[in-house]
From TrEMBL:
Top EC class of this enzyme: transferase
GO biological process terms on file: methylation
The protein's name in its UniProt record: site-specific DNA-methyltransferase (adenine-specific)
Gene symbol of the encoding locus: mboIIM
Residue ranges with Basic and acidic residues bias: 187-199
Amino acid sequence: MKKQKLELTWIGKELRPKLEARILLEDAARSYHAKSRVGERDIFDNQLIFGDNLLALKALEQEYAGRVKCVFIDPPYNTGSAFTHYDDGLEHSIWLGLMRDRLEIIRRLMSDDGSLWITIDDNECHYLKVLCDEVFGRGNFVANVVWQKRTSPDNRLRLGNAHDHVLVYGKSPLMHQTFNQLQVSESRKKDFKNPDGDQRGAWASTDFTGMTGHATKSQFYTIVSPNGKKHPPPEGRCWAISEDNFNKLMLENRVWFGADGNARPRLKRFLSEMEGQNAWSWWSNDEVGHNQEAKKEINTLFGADNPFDTPKPERLLQRIIHLATNPNDLVLDSFAGSGTTGAVAHKMGRRWIMIELGEHCHTHIIPRLQKVIDGTDQGGISKAVDWQGGGGFRYYHLAPTLIIKDRWGNDIINPEYNAAMLAEALCKLEAFTYAPSEVHWWQQGYSSETDFIYVTTQSLSVAQLQVLSDEVGAHRSLLVCCSAFRGIKSSEAMVRFPNLSLKKIPKMVLSRCEWGHDDYSLNVANLPMAEPTPVSVSQASEVANTRKTPRGKVVRDDAPLLDGLFEASE
């Protein structure tokens, strides 16, 4: 019988935005770097990106696909408090569409051994789990970490919520085997004793039996204790190793038979030989922090009057980044909030990219990162990692849309684009790497060692095309993007100039994207009120795709949206 594939469905699932892959523009006045090197491991090429996070993720895709080792996101929890006046099914559908569109790009950005960590609560956790199964594959689910976020019960409820979830997914099924171990905790060290005075120091005994499912005959034997007592394997179990290997352990004094020498054998594990301990899926607040600790950290940085209701403690991010990465690996957070991910990654010697749309990107995140770089932020994990400052980041914002309408309704190149911006934009749209040559004026980017691109707003004549073809030569090819070419038809040009491919701008890209969409977020406060009577699917779709711009103008979008809620979600 053929298995039926189960999928999560919601209103508008089939709607997908045609995203414009925009270029990123640096604002050097907002970039920040240490005045001098503090250490050899200083990292200066971190990125803080201001703008809609879906567009920003798309902007990163070409350059960073397969390069991000760890993604941490803290999306809005969709508690329903912001949707009091709206149909629950519609609200839920909007949230799922929002997450699906972003998760698909995030997956492409992750390296093969990369991992995604999502903090979420019970309102959407289990729907999000099924959605992630679809995007990443059910076999790539690693764990549902339970984080104890509170320090005491919520007295308002008879059964109070004490935890959040951290869903963990990999790009490949065996990715979790690359996780780093944790340092042996002080509580774990207390389990190590040395009752027999072993010269190798303190040790703890571990079980020496195994499951019989894949056991061989060599694992079924009787062990005789030093005092003569015989120990066959326990019923339904076998010994974990063969008798030959057991005898080797006996010669090395690595087997413990209890204080009287007659107990069932157990293996001695020495503290001095442990490099660390494996993590598990229960993270208590004494290990990784809690809500009150996080708020105290934020209040110390910004004062009590700050916009962050649910920040995450630095110790929680430290645990995640430690497990998932090594120094110099790349960490991404597309819901930056107060900037905790970048601050912790920076202190831990990881490269980072953060994306944030809210104005607190300028009023809070940048000042926080400046304190980290200057070494004046000694809160959070600073003392634990002996942070002294150093490194830096570059601040970017999304370029405006490439195609706009002129006063007569014609599609034209946005006049805000200069020649270099236009060349870089078309390189991104045509999957070329933007890299202007200092030798050849017509080499503005490349897709291979012999394939290049040239962008101009000029109308090229046959004579100009001939010069280009001659300079490119027979062993190379060139994509020519121009406003027009005159004196020759496309079919004739292909025959006469076989090393050139000709495309007209902006016609060559008109059908590819939703031009002019700067905001794929949804500001719930600006939604129209729901009708008192039940709405149909078509009506729900209409509401889902209607929003107001920050200036109050109502506009229509063709895809599920939601980002304004993300601004204070960290």
